[in-house]
Structure formats: structure tokens, C-alpha cells
Design goal:
152 residues, single chain, 6 helices, five-stranded mixed β-sheet, 35% helix, alpha+beta
Length: 152
Amino acid sequence: MTDITFRRAQASDLPDIVAMLADDPLGAGREDASLPLAQGYIDAFNAIDADPNQLLVVAVDGGEVIGTLQISFLAGLSRKGAWRGQIEAVRVAGHRRSGGVGRLMIEWAIDACRARGCSLVQLTTDKGRADAHRFYGNLGFTGSHLGYKKTL
């Protein structure tokens, strides 16, 4: 593994991030990586970037964006007012999958949550992503909850 670094995403990273979001069977049906990017992506990036409780991150190797994830830092009353880190939209560029990049990204995200005072890190993954379930289980996550979504 080479020298992978992690940094806050910049607007110039958006095409790479959206391309990774679109590069899987689920994302292909809901994302649009064509250029110029849809205004919704730009608006969402600006909202995330302006919110101190949101962190959109890219993994970079030799100047190339090879991964991305988003952490939402959530305040809550349960667990005696504990903060949680919610990890979302974890993606690794297709040509770098199965090489340890995802593990480094999640370990980095856990450390970032710990540094922000979170006492819990959580994430969701689609029921159809069996490989992701094994991956997160191997990193110490437990499938303790059943999540629900409703499209609006």
C-alpha cells in the first residue's frame, strides 16, 4: 500500500466522488456522474461543507482520489448525552477495491469520531451488500439494529 492520505473533500473532488457513488449496482440506478454535474450535487456539497457536524472526506494516493466517505456527528440524549459518528456513503474506486483501502478509510473514520468525542460509531449498509456485511463485521461492527427508510 502506498502513501494514502485523508482530507476534507473540496468542490474540485465532486466529479470523482459522484463517479464512485455511481460505480456499483445500487448507485448506477440512482446517481448521475455525467458532466457537468447536476446542481443538486453542488448544493449538497456546499451544505455539507458549511456544517461543522458534517465531514466529507476523500482518500488520496499520489494526487488521485481513490475513496470517499461522509461522517455525520450526531448529538443525542440517549446514552447520557453521547455523541455518535454516523458513517455514510463509503466508496472505493473500482481499480483499488480489495486492496485494504476501505479498511484504512474506516479505521481513519473511527479515529476521527473518537477525536470528536463520540462514544459510538454507527453505519448502515443495504441488505443486498453481503460483502459489505462481512467487511464491517470483520472490523468489529455488529448488525444490532434493523433500519427503515422511506423515499419522499
